[in-house]
Amino acid sequence: MASTDSSMGQDTPPESLSQGSVCEPLIYHHVKKKDGSVQVDQKSDDLNLEKDSEDDKESPYALVIRRHISEKRETESVTVQINSQLLLNAFQQVIGSYPTVATDFKESFQLKSPFQILFHYWDQLATYRDENESPEMRQHLNLLFRFMEQEIGADKRLIDGMVRKEMISFKQAWAIYHPGDLAYTEVMGKTWLMRVRKVSYEESRNRGPYFTVHTSYCDANEQGIGEATTSIDVYQKESFPSDQPAKISSLEIYPRKFCHQDKQLEEELLTRGKKYISIKGVQTKHYEGIAQYLKEPPANFWDPDMADFPAVWLPFTETGRIVLDKKTFEEDNFNDSTKVQEIPDPELILCPPYALGYSMDRKDWCRFLVDNIHDVAWKEDMWESLILEQEQKQLLQALVTSHVYPEDTRNQPEQKGKGLVILLQVCTSPRPRALANEISRHGTPGSGKTLSAETAAEMSKKALMYTSMGTLNKYDFASAFEARLQELLRYATLWKAIILIDEVDVFLERRDNKSGTDTTRNALVAVFLRQLEYFSGIVFLTTNRIGSLDEAMESRIHLSISFGQPDMEVRCRIWQQVLDTVPPDEIELADHASSVLELMKHDLNGRQISNALNTARTLARFEKCKLNLSHIKTVLKVRQSFRLRMAPEDI
């Protein structure tokens, strides 16, 4: 591999030569012996150098090559120190910078096999050599190419052959990821383009060898828009079965040039990117479509390597309200936030296809596709449809609309006593024995309690967080209950959301402090009262039965509204409202008023009326005709027949 420069005589003292000025390689073989020692052999003696140089940077040779050889006489690794100033100039002009090489090419530097930088810039360096007019520059570049041909020439031809077939092997996969190039991946079937930074190889104890593609992408936070980094792992066993070459486009992430889509893709990504960066801070949105929720490990699961486990995202279909809040998601799940470095010209086509947020329905953190996120169509006229006594309705509206949320929501001591607690309870009247027993066990559902909280949320344009005592006290353990309650109240405070807690009977009943037999319940009530004291938002509590109200709980309630089974007048208004929601081209009632008068005679609550109408509409669609009174009567008749069979002796 060594060449002889005729202008250099063997009598020239090495100290008189400048660094890297000799266009020749100096080669050392580091041979490992059986006793563990290493013998260093010099393979070039043009300048009468008789010993191993301590500092390759000071060598007059353009290249100092060190080959590390095993006991079996096999090359384990190779390093090359590039000292030639001409080569450094060429690297500055052609490459500029490279992620895995910590230099700006102004000083001598070292490269290690497999010499990724030389592979990735082989063609560019060759073009620069061929077009350069300086004989000295071409001479030094020819020396570099002789080294490249010897060390990686065979690999390059092998890789080029696979790439022409759009295939690649695991060990050579690094070659297709050129730093700075666009890479293609998908999340939930949506494209995400990134910029390649580097590739590294590792091995997992559980999943075997893998390589990691380190990338950058465009992201935004409250400070601005810029560049963030992430990485994607590709495992050998999963992507390269039987250690055979894989189709490049089958990899989890691969170069954009192997994705055969037209330039319209970038235009679509630009539109999506503009929408993504508009999602800043906390926003309540409507979502329809596929999403992914973050699966948490079981409460009793522990593993010493848990910190290294990748996040597990599982698909589901979401239809409803969501809250987008990337900052809180990252704080709660990763104890950190994405670092976004502001840059002059951020590439919006590199924005993620999803936004991070919270599903009100699932009560889980999720990834929501940006394309499926829409503005909320708030039902501002919903207040008119709420059937309450005028005084109650006016007071509820005044309290909700006048409530002020503190600015510093993270300062808990400042929140004490600033919340609004509204109790929605059932007030029953004497009924036939069978129905009276039903009410005493279950209360009166469908009387308007949930609708009141929903109306308050719609009117104030705030998210509604619904939960129940059973959900909060899932593990029947005070500390676990407190943690779940704290989380609920914290999210509601950050998002200025309205809370609806159903079935809170256990918190409202007066505690027995004398017997000491119900310590678990007393502990839960104490936790609930303490957390409620420092909540500064709006919370609705619903109950279907209550004997005597606990004094401590009563002192924290600002408004209590009673609901009963709707009388005929209320049922008339409910029937009128639900019938008005049916589009005119889908309904055919000969006499609307008389139909309502006939329907209101049935002893139903609001939810039952709504369900009956929806079932009747389904029946009409099945018969391919417009909704009429007979459809509703059929549904009510079937319902009444069921109730008679359930309680034949009492009805």
Describe this structure in words.
With 651 residues, the chain is an alpha+beta fold. It folds into four domains: 14-163, no CATH class; 166-299 and 311-361, no CATH class; 382-563, P-loop containing nucleotide triphosphate hydrolases (Rossmann fold, 3-Layer(aba) Sandwich); 568-646, Helicase, Ruva Protein, domain 3. It contains 20 helices and 23 strands. Strands 12-7-8-9-10-15 form a six-stranded antiparallel β-sheet. A five-stranded mixed β-sheet has the order 2-1-3-4-5. Strands 13, 14, 16, 17 and 18 form a five-stranded antiparallel β-sheet that branches. The protein is elongated and about 110 Å long. The N and C termini lie far apart (104 Å).
Topology:
Layout: E1 22-32, E2 38-42, E3 61-69, E4 75-82, H1 85-94, E5 109-112, H2 116-120, H3 122-131, H4 135-164, E6 167-168, E7 182-187, E8 190-204, E9 208-220, E10 225-235, H5 236-239, E11 246-247, E12 253-255, H6 264-277, E13 283-294, E14 313-324, H7 326-334, E15 341-342, E16 354-359, E17 364-369, E18 373-374, H8 382-385, H9 390-402, E19 420-426, H10 433-442, H11 449-460, E20 464-468, H12 469-472, H13 478-495, E21 498-502, H14 505-508, H15 519-533, E22 538-543, H16 551-554, E23 559-563, H17 568-580, H18 592-599, H19 606-622, H20 629-646
